[in-house]
Amino acid sequence: MQSTSGIVFGRTAPGIPVRDVDRAVAFYVDVLGMTVSFTNGDPVGFVILRREGAELHLTLVRDRPAGTHNVAHLLVEGAAELHDHLVAHGVRIVKGLRDADHGLRGFVFCDPDGNRIDVGEPLR
User: What own/partner pairs with CB < 8 Å and gap ≥ 24 does 99-108 have?
Assistant: First the structure.
């Protein structure tokens, strides 16, 4: 394997395909408290959302069916509180809140397009 000691990786920003940009933005802003930092297209087909250190890129893909895999992993503080907040807003929870033996408390939820977001909080 070639040495990569001089290379430094930064944060990543997963691209999330959505069928309806306005509906997706409303969910991520109104329910998750993210803010729109960039839009592109007329009509808008690409949106960058941010909250604290998290960044998501929404991309319009009208004919994309929902997948059965996680499209993003979101590390948080307060996983239980986020879980309860999402439940209170009627968000579909795919995998319930649990403490995993790999050291994270987490759960998986779906956005309005069926994209699965895995949430994790390091156990202390």
Answer: 99/123, 105/79, 105/80, 106/79, 107/79, 107/83, 108/70
- Full set of structural domains in the chain with CATH: 15-122 (3.10.180.10)
pLDDT tens digit at each of 124 positions of the chain: 566 778 888 888 999 999 999 999 999 999 999 999 999 999 999 999 999 999 999 999 998 887 888 999 999 999 999 999 999 999 999 999 999 888 999 999 999 999 999 999 999 8
Instruction: Tell me how far apart the alpha carbons of residues 32 and 51 are, in angstroms, rounded to a whole number.
Output: 9
Pair 20, 113: CB distance under 8 Å: yes
Is 69 strand, coil or helix? coil
